[in-house]
Amino acid sequence: AHAFVISLGLAFSLAGIGLDLYHSVQLWCFIGPIPCDGNDPECDSNANKFQLYRWIFVGIPLWICIFAITGLMAAVLFKVHNQEKRSRKWRAGAEDKGRQLTKKVAEQAAWYVSSFYITWVVPTISRAMSAFGKQPPFALMFIVVLLIPLQGAFNFFIYMRPRYVKFRKKNPDRSTLRLLMETFLRTCNVRREEEDGDDMNLAKKIGDMYQTTAGSVLHSVVEVSRASEVQPRKSTMSAAVIPVQDNGAVEGEINVQNEGNAV
Q: Among 198, 203, 195, which Cα is nearest to 220's?
């Protein structure tokens, strides 16, 4: 399957070069008209039939893929629903749990499919207007330029969504910002211990790891978010920070809590 998709995309790309389809379309280099000098009456900007090839090489394959993805997600949801329905009778009290699983799959599938429609409906309308000889308005073109580069960002947030929902359920009192930071850090494969305040250490590790301004900003944002949530505690515990050496290579910090005797 991967070989077929890669081969098809490569074939379309090389065909576009051979047909002289790639030209500036103001926004980017794309399948466009042949640039002509206004003083050359023999030059035909539509000689390469760019409007037709836009649909053959881009529009039609794109929407075939989107509809196929929609159908596959519907098939996955139907499969999960049927399996839960069949297994429900063999497990006592599993009816609600089965329904919850089906609901989670449906929500995630809907978010995933919606990202394609959000990204490509407006650009398709713009291309259709151009194909019929109408100039798309500036507002429409602005939305096109905004949405197409954001498809990767949409997929990233949808990928993180199940983890965010899980953290929100476990920690309903935490702020949205703090939960987003925890989700981001875990998605970046940074290990997190289940201790209060450990997200501060994670943010600091990120900043130390990359030595970038973004890392410093990340650390500051989490610090402010956590400071706004800290509640006074009725405790006489004190903390000491002891530097340690791990196998002679990595230095860390161990928070040692004292309640009369040092641990």
A: 203
